[in-house]
Fold:
Amino acid sequence: MVDEGLLMILICIFALMNDNMLKKIKELEKISLKLEPNAAARKVARKKVIEYTEGFLENIYSLKAYDLTEEKGKGIFSSPISDTPIEIDEAIKLVFDNVDTHGLNPASGGHLGYIPGGGIYYSALGDYMADITNRYAGIFFASPGAVRMENMLIDWMNGIVGYSKQASGNLTTGGSLANLIAVVTARDAHKIKSKDIEKTVIYLSEQAHHSIDKSIRIAGMGECVHRFIPIDEKFRIKPDELERMIADDKANGLIPWLVIAAAGTTDVGAIDPLDEIGDITHKYNLWFHIDGAYGGFFALTDEGKKLLKGIEKSDSVIIDPHKSLFLPYGLGVVLIKDKKHLYESHHYFANYMQDALKDADELSPADLSPELTKHYRSLRLWLPLKLLGIAPFRACLEEKLLLAKYFYDKIKNTKRFEVLLEPQLSVVVFRYIPEKGDTDAFNERILEEVHKDGRIFFSSTRINGKFMLRICVLAFRTHIETIDLALDIIIEKVELVKS
Ligand SMILES: *Cc1c(COP(=O)(O)O)cnc(C)c1O
Structure:
């Protein structure tokens, strides 16, 4: 028997609790609805952001390429993350004052340092759309369209490097992650066991990008034997030396595993003899990885195609749309010749692997990379390609090759300048030889003055112990006027340092 009085009390308590809870839910909803600005509020914020970015674009050809400042954006800390919201104007001002006016301006055509970036406009619109619709790009089931879009782009790029339909790949955040995926795939494809790591050999050049070394370490392969293949006077791997090393290692009971070559080194833009290296890796059954983060997309041009002959002989390649396809930062690509290997290393439902390969319309990015949930990254590449076609990209790359040659010819023929070598892609390495005093110190001073000036930006490198100045022409906003300006500024700074 239930006591009716007690029951009534309990019901009342529950009703009260329920009432309180509903009240609380409504209160919370009212606050959380701020996450959903209405059309009018969206319009206000959007208008301000468009005003700001349009202002940036209107002035981009006169904005500094480099802003050397004292405070280096410290003011961002003056407005801590808190419960107090600020207006969009204030937020934009904080960004302008503390971010967009310090350091490198990668959107500038005057950016001739390292490997320049860019940031074509239609990519920004692609990101805007992607962020609003927020399609779940990791899995076919969740967004078949977004996955098809990614795979279609991957197919297109596989075609550029001469891979067949058997190839696959992944849109990553950049070249470093792309390299990591390739190294891990190579490790698993060759079934390297941990007990064999110390006997396993990697062949690479001293010119390899540091992200390769990082990838090897992260992949747990840091204790492999590293063989640095001698390079020729054009900084390219010597294939006969490579073959000799492999044969020696094999004879000595080691396990030759991975050869890493570059389609455009960062230092001088050298392209390793891919065709010959490909033949050697086939002969000895090694994994052949090509780092084309900088140079890969030059394969879109006739000249580049010739230079990159043999790229299709590799097992994996990385290319960086946020470098040589001028996209804003946040897009690298790994391509793997045999999709099976990429899948085997990165899928996460081991027991239905065969079915997934056979039955799914499309492979899902989540099975081809370390990521599960991923940004709908394809749209930032697809949209500009669709709106513009490939031709302007090809032309821009060809223009960059010629601009580098133009700069090379000019600087080579300028008194007291020394050039390292004719550009293979779009990097020129050079320095000034002063009449008296220390050459390294003089060139360091030139660079310092160029950075202080800021109209253009370039960087330096050390080649055979010598301090060298270095430009890389790759920003899509770099045109002949930029190169002429760079030449004028260099001469101006030489005079300044001399005085
Ligand atoms: C830039 C670069 C990388 C690294 O790519 P990120 O996109 O910067 O991560 C790797 N290799 C080469 C040759 C590069 O130029």
